[in-house]
Design a protein that fits this description.
Bound molecules: inosinic acid, magnesium ion
Structural class: alpha/beta
Oligomer: single chain
Order of helices and strands: EHEHEEEHEEEE
Largest sheet: 6 strands, mixed
Number of strands: 9
Distance between the termini: 13 Å
Helix content: 10-25%
Strand order of the largest sheet: 4-3-2-5-6-7
Strand content: 25-35%
Number of helices: 3
Shape: globular
Radius of gyration: 16 Å
């Protein structure tokens, strides 16, 4: 697969912003332990980079979700392809996402995770497309707000491709 891809957020910008977010997170959770939940596959790269710079004790877990059935219905229900390995009860949970678009996936996920009684539940996203929002959901930590464009790279895919690009780019037609 080969498309022309124009850089939207550079590797350097991502690195710098990740360090800033990690510093803020480390300050806000000082004296506490933090349980990071990486939403597969898109947020793998961001979760790892972020975890590297967080200075409070970190544990990691992974979850894989997909939209339920026919996209045109868009119920916002998500199917769990891989659930967490460990209980989140009583933990400071920080969900790490690649991008918030309509917010449907996360809205559903948050209701579900909240029911498992974490001590705290927050959200960190690398990218946010606020123009596309349909649900009332907002990240506690946001890397970059971007316009309504389809982006790839740094975990984000187009038909499973381009996740490994070290930057976030826009595919040109
Ligand atoms: P939503 O917030 O429930 O609408 O869905 C968010 C999910 O859609 C993300 O986790 C991505 O997997 C996918 N997504 C949304 N926008 C983009 C994009 O610009 N590029 C690649 N994937 C995207
Ligand atoms: Mg995703």
């Amino acid at each position: 697969m080969e498309h022309k891809i124009k850089v939207l957020v550079s590797k350097e910008q991502i690195e710098e912003r990740t360090k800033e977010l990690a510093a803020q997170i480390s300050r806000e959770y000082e004296g506490e332990a933090l349980h990071l939940i990486c939403i597969l596959k898109g947020s793998v790269f961001f979760t790892c980079a972020l975890a590297n710079y967080i200075t409070v004790p970190v544990t990691l877990d992974f979850m894989s979700v997909s939209s339920y059935g026919n996209e045109t219905v868009s119920s916002g229900r998500v199917k769990i392809l891989k659930d967490l390995d460990e209980s989140i009860q009583g933990k400071n949970v920080l969900v790490v996402e690649d991008i918030i678009d309509s917010g449907r996936t996360l809205s559903y996920l948050f209701t579900m995770l909240n029911a498992r009684n974490p001590k705290t539940l927050k959200l960190c996203t690398l990218l946010d497309k606020p123009d596309r929002r349909e649900m009332d959901i907002e990240a506690d930590y946001t890397g970059f707000q971007i316009p309504d464009l389809f982006v790839v790279g740094y975990g984000l895919d187009y038909m499973q491709n381009y996740r490994n690009l070290p930057y976030v780019g826009v595919m040109e037609q």
